[in-house]
Write a structure and sequence with these properties.
A hairpin with a 2-residue loop joins strand 31 and strand 32. Helix content is 39%, strand content 31%. The strands form seven sheets. Strands 21, 22, 23, 24, 25, 26, 27, 28 and 29 form a nine-stranded mixed beta sheet that branches. A six-stranded antiparallel beta barrel has the order 31-32-33-36-35-34. It starts with 7 loop residues before the first helix and ends with a helix. It has 955 residues and is an alpha+beta fold. It has 32 helices and 37 strands.
């Protein structure tokens, strides 16, 4: 048998036999040579078994403290003790048993010894103090044959225990975890079952084919079916057909998979239709496929009955009100109608001081948002809510108007919700016997939205006489007319003469009085519009009406259709809005002038500023003021690699041509993703997402823009190749943080921009990139979320920032964008002879430190693997001069960045960012011997392709 595959029990038996045989051989003195040979073989066998055993092999006394007499060397690896510690300490084993296990072990071990051996499991204290679970398998050894169980049955005494300790801690932990998980799962299932069965609502679930798979007790109570009658049948059975079931399913899909509070009808077993309120969701599997639905249906019959009872009570109340109304005198009924439909808020104030309010009609609440008592109890209520810019003018104008006996004034008044509404305040002064002003009676009309006033006075029947006086003093003309024909007037208030110059009787006696005095240019429009408003039951219309003196005034005619004794009537008011119309005409004229100015500004400055910045400057009243605000902005900094050295080798016109081609392509991408170009900095572009306008997906659009900018470099370089110009590479850094946004500069010259430490950090992140790469900060990664696919991550230290910064390489963006960078295959070629060079560190725009030596081991047209004189951090910028075999510098300077450890020990990968043409030719023809193509050294390989990623890879 292979000793390496013995079980613990077989190993224990074999070791027991070997130890006993060794003892018996040592006791014998005859045939010394044969005994020594057998003894040596047994000892070798024992040593081999101990070496290959994964368990600790031991022997102990068979009674008392079970003092250890032998233990294998691997006890130190498993329990941390030296073998000598256990052998010399007679209580070493019992003292280290777990207190909770010791009584059980001593209680069981005697019976097992009598049975010649067995297995125990207990916790034993490791040398470092923690407890490990041990499986202890042993055999009892008796005088004579150690494994003779017959001797044990005949009363022989065990003299020694031989066994093995195995560490089963991991198994015990796995068993405990499995038991806890199983208990939690059963508890969750029990809770879910109790929830479903105890729910008073009907809970119904279907599979992907629309068949019922769950039908709880609430559903049985509601619909009269037993669960077994509907399980496995189409759910359309419960909706009275496919149409009802499909309607609910359509609503769920239309609302993103979940519908809540949807009114529907279910059909009971007895054929009755039951109105229900449904909340349901579509169930999806891990791949996003629909696998069924689950829904709750709440019985609406009680609510429907309550609604019917409420409607019945309401109808009964209406009947009582109508009966009460018919008992009122015709004059009082007429007055209540007039006060109910008036579009203005009726009020009375003190005639002096702060003009404290003494009465206000109930419709102050729907128009201004305040209750009556709030205005009546606070004497300063009205002046405190005047607009600060209007208050001085209003009090200045009020004095002369009060002296004149009344008038109209317009101002802004703060609504309860904090906004200001424009009020037209028309009032009359009531004087005392001595001629002093004692009360102001007037009306407030909301001229912001031209809203019709409803429920003007309501239940103010107890003060009917006072209301009659209010109507008489009101500056608005109250009227009733027929609802058809020439709209002959049947009633008009006395103040008609003050407003239009006519006596009331003139209008009442001439059926065509109103229609004959409409402005000829307005008449056709008015009759066309008024017919539609009459059908709607109410409305407001504006037109010109001839005054008695012959000139036309503008009227705001607000009315409501009512049922009178002789059929339908119009009850309304005429308000003189001539002044307002003149102001509106002036405002329109000024608006046209402003639009002309804005068009000129857009055409003039649109070539120098982004559309967003120009719009902000034009739309904001403070757009041209200096100042700013703090805002969370995602910033993108893009910069060309090695462009300075390229521009030094080209004529100015070609430098400008390359830049214009590059900027033209990048600006189109930025506009497509709604970014704001803050400025062009040489060959760099600084882009904002979140200023001047913020959107929830600013960070995602910024990353999408950056990827598409890198992809657009292919088109830029195609244009460069057509003009025999070198190709360009771009690095992009992205960061999200709080900055100060606003107009920065002086009164004579300013720009819209951002400032703050996060702007500097964005520039630092960009400086760590290599050509074709996009790096983003942790803040941007968190903002974008799970749709962002990343490559390698790195931790760097940026100049000006104390803490290290974690950067991630952007590879792709999922969601609706599905964008991915080009995947470039770039194999390094092993050089036959290493290529020597000298290098210096580049920090910012300066060289740092003395020149160091290095050599290129492997090389491609984009990067190399080098041995450097001193190790360098990742993303360190280098200036490199190649050295020929004679130790002389080769003309031309290369620039590169460290990218990580190389394949060989002690080497570093360097990524070239700029290579002059003469060095490129040397590397291509003299070192790599690659065929010359139209592409430059820094170009992407011709077989590079944009990778179209599947959805699961992008997410």
């Amino acid at each position: 048998m292979d000793s390496e595959h013995l079980s613990h029990e077989e190993l224990t038996q074999e070791i027991g036999r070997l130890r006993q045989r060794i003892k018996s051989l040592e006791a014998q003195q005859t045939d010394r040579t044969e005994i020594e040979k057998e003894l040596s073989g047994a000892q070798q066998r024992l040593a081999h078994l101990l070496a290959v055993s994964p368990a600790i092999i031991y022997s102990t006394q068979a009674a008392g403290n079970f003092a250890c007499t032998f233990v294998s060397e691997n006890i130190q690896a498993i329990m941390g003790y030296q073998p000598q510690e256990m052998i010399t300490d007679l209580k070493h084993w019992p003292d280290r048993l777990h207190p909770d296990d010791a009584p059980r072990i001593f209680d069981q071990i005697g019976a097992l010894i009598e049975a010649s051996g067995g297995t125990l499991e207990y916790r034993f204290r490791h040398r470092d103090g923690h407890y490990v679970w041990i499986q202890d398998t042993f055999k009892a050894i008796y005088d004579g044959d150690p494994l003779d169980s017959e001797r044990a049955r005949n009363g022989a005494h065990a003299v020694e225990l031989v066994g093995a300790w195995a560490d089963i801690t991991m198994r015990k932990e796995a068993e405990r975890t499995a038991l806890e998980a199983n208990a939690a799962l059963h508890e969750t299932k029990r809770n879910l079952s109790r929830l479903i069965e105890s729910s008073p609502d009907a809970i119904i679930s279907t599979d992907g084919a629309g068949n019922v798979v769950l039908f709880n007790e609430g559903a049985e109570s509601l619909l009269g079916y037993r669960a077994e009658e509907v399980i496995g049948k189409p759910v359309a059975l419960l909706y009275g057909g496919e149409a009802g079931a499909n309607e609910v399913l359509r609503e769920m899909r239309k609302r993103g998979g979940t519908v809540a509070g949807f009114d529907s009808v279910l059909w009971a077993k007895d054929g009755a239709s039951i109105p229900v309120l449904i909340s349901a969701s579509v169930l999806f599997d891990d791949e996003g496929h629909e696998v069924g639905t689950v829904g709750f249906a709440t019985d609406l019959r009680e609510r429907k009955r309550a609604q019917e009872e409420l409607q019945k009570s309401y109808d009964e109340l209406e009947r009582h009100v109508e009966e009460r109304t018919t008992e009122l005198k015709e004059a009082r009924a007429r007055l209540q109608y007039l006060m109910t439909v008036t579009p203005g808020i009726m009020y009375t104030n003190h005639g002096t001081g702060s003009y404290a309010c003494t009465f206000v009609s109930q419709n102050v609440d729907p128009i201004m948002g305040f209750s009556e008592w709030e205005m009546l109890e606070d004497p300063e209520f009205w002046p405190k809510r005047l607009h600060p810019e209007d208050a001085g003018r209003v009090f200045q104008e009020m004095g002369p108007l009060v002296v004149a006996g009344g008038g109209t004034i317009e101002y802004r008044f703060r609504h309860r919700d904090g906004l200001y509404v424009w009020i037209q305040d028309t009032f009359k002064v009531v004087r005392g016997d001595g001629g002093e002003p004692i009360e102001i009676v007037g009306s407030w009309a909301d001229i912001t939205h031209r809203k019709q006033v409803e429920n003007a006075l309501g239940e103010r029947m107890a003060i009917m006489n006072d209301l009659q006086n209010l109507v008489a003093a009101s500056p608005a003309v109250i009227y009733t007319t027929q609802a058809t024909g020439d709209f002959a007037c049947t009633f008009v208030s006395e103040n008609l003469k003050t407003t239009m110059g006519y006596a009331p009787w003139e209008m009442r006696e001439d059926p065509k009085f109103w229609s004959k005095r409409l402005h000829p240019e307005d008449a056709l429009r008015v009759f066309a519009e008024i017919a539609g408003l009459v059908e709607k039951g109410a409305g407001t219309i504006e037109y010109r009406f001839r005054h008695r003196r012959g000139h036309y005034i503008w009227l705001q005619d607000t009315f409501k259709v009512i049922e009178g004794k002789n059929g339908k009537e119009l009850v309304g008011s005429w308000a003189d809005i001539t002044d307002r119309k003149q102001i509106e005409a002036e405002v329109k004229r000024l608006a046209r002038e402003v639009e002309l100015r804005n068009t000129f500004i857009r055409d003039t400055f649109g070539r120098y500023l982004t559309d967003e910045v120009v719009t902000t400057l034009l739309d904001s009243p403070t757009g041209l003021h200096m100042g700013g605000e703090k805002r969370n902005v995602t910033m993108v900094m893009a910069d060309l690699r090695g462009f300075t050295s390229i521009s030094e080798r080209l004529a100015p016109k070609w430098v400008v041509s390359m830049l214009n081609r590059y900027f033209d392509a990048m600006v189109k991408v930025v506009k497509r993703h709604e970014g704001t170009i803050d400025e062009f900095i040489g060959d760099a572009i600084f882009i904002l997402f979140g200023a001047p306008t913020w959107k929830e997906d600013d960070a995602r659009r910024a990353v999408a823009c950056a990827i598409e900018m890198q992809l657009a470099m292919t088109q830029v370089n195609e244009g460069n190749r057509e003009n025999d110009l070198p190709e360009l590479q771009m690095g992009i850094g992205i960061h999200t943080g709080q900055v100060v946004v606003g107009n920065i500069g002086s009164v004579e010259r300013m720009k819209y921009g951002v400032v703050g430490s996060h702007v500097n950090l964005t520039s630092r992140i960009q400086s760590f990139t290599i050509g074709g790469q996009i790096l983003c900060s942790e803040a941007t990664r968190r903002e974008v979320g799970a749709t962002l696919r990343l490559g390698k991550q790195m931790e760097v230290r940026a100049k000006g920032f104390e803490q290290p910064i974690t950067l991630s390489e952007v590879v792709a963006l999922g969601g609706p964008y599905k964008l991915a960078l080009y995947q470039v295959k770039d194999d390094l070629t092993q050089l036959a002879d290493e290529l020597a060079f000298s290098y210096r560190l580049v920090e910012g725009d300066h060289l740092n430190g003395q020149a160091l030596k290095g050599s290129l081991v492997r090389l491609s047209l984009r990067r190399g693997e080098a041995r450097l004189e001193a190790p360098l951090p990742i993303l360190t910028n280098l200036e490199i001069r190649l050295v020929d075999a004679n130790g002389r510098f080769i003309p031309g300077t290369l620039y590169a960045k460290t990218a990580g450890p190389g394949a060989e020990g002690g080497t570093t990968i360097i990524q070239f960012s700029s290579i002059p043409p003469e060095v490129e030719a040397l590397l291509r023809d003299g070192v790599l011997r690659t065929p010359r193509t139209s592409a430059s050294l820094m170009a992407l390989p011709a077989d590079s392709e944009a990778q179209s990623l599947p959805d699961h890879a992008l997410h």
